[in-house]
Amino acid sequence: MKEIKQIVQEMISAHSCYQGLKDAGQAYLDSIGTDMEKQAAKKLIEVTEDSVQSIDEVLEFFQSERGKQVFGEETAANLTKQAKEVKAKGGKYCFCPSCTAGVELLKRKAEIL
Question: Kindly report the CA angle at 28 between 6 and 39, in degrees rounded to 5?
Fold first, then answer.
């Protein structure tokens, strides 16, 4: 089983991780073993809960005009196809590396809170 520290590092190192989550994750990693660890963990969990996207949310985005602008037509179409496959297999969350690690962290949040 991965250590929480490794999951957080994977999440914040992902190209798909937004800056607010990177900052909360790094603050948590920097706080490990200090008086601030529990407070930083709580903040990290809050930000992660707000950041992890459902498969329906990303599917909608990939199909939108904004998604096509961000990713380009071809990549947006490929991401839409992948999202539909994930959903068809019962996936509930975005499949990007950051969200995947975020979901794993949330499943284990009791370990750091």
Answer: 135
Per DSSP, the three-state class of 65 is: helix
Contact 96, 62 (CB under 8 A): no
State the residue range of the domain holding 74. 54-92
Q: Are residues 104 and 67 in the same domain?
A: no
Q: Which residue from 30, 36, 60, 44 is spatially nearest to 98, judged by alpha carbons?
A: 44
Rounded to the nearest 5°, which phi and psi values hold at 59?
A: -60, -45
The model's pLDDT over 26-60, given as tens digits with 9 standing for 90+, comes to 999 999 999 999 999 999 999 999 999 999 999 99
The set of residues, in sequence order, having a beta carbon less than 8 Å from that of 32 and lying 6+ positions away, is 5
For residues 9 and 63, state if they share a domain. no
Give the chain's domain count: 2
**Calpha distance 113→106 (Å, rounded):** 11
pTM: 0.90
